[in-house]
Amino acid sequence: MTGSLQIKNGKFYAVIRFKDSNNKPKQKWISTGYDVKNNKRKAEQKLQDILFELEKRVGETVAILLAFLLIFTVLLSVT
User: 62 — phi, psi (to 5°)?
Assistant: First the structure.
């Protein structure tokens, strides 16, 4: 997952690039809420915060899936 800042209509947007479940490239535009003038550092920090939060969610999802896999494996070995 990667991201960059883009300008649209005088505002900074975080453009997040990722691959979907079919391994096709996708992108999502998320507003930082900052105007272009004098807010580049704030927008860059917001981009980093967005990427961190998304990576954290992906990690939590993987952990949940691994837990289900472990439970399923244990249940199969018991029967």
Answer: -65, -40
Distance, in Å, from the CA atom of 25 to the CA atom of 5, rounded to the nearest integer, reads 18
> Both tokens of residue 25?
């490239």
Are the C-beta atoms of residues 26 and 1 closer than 8 Å to each other? no
Q: Distance between CA 42 and CA 33 in Å, rounded? A: 10
Over residues 28-70, the pLDDT tens digits come to 999 999 999 999 999 999 999 999 999 898 888 888 888 888 8
* Cβ neighbours of 61 (radius 10 Å): 10
The whole-model pTM stands at: 0.74
Triad 34, 36, 41: Cα angle to 5°: 70
Distance (Å, whole) CA 15 – CA 4: 5
Cα(71)–Cα(53) distance, integer angstroms: 27
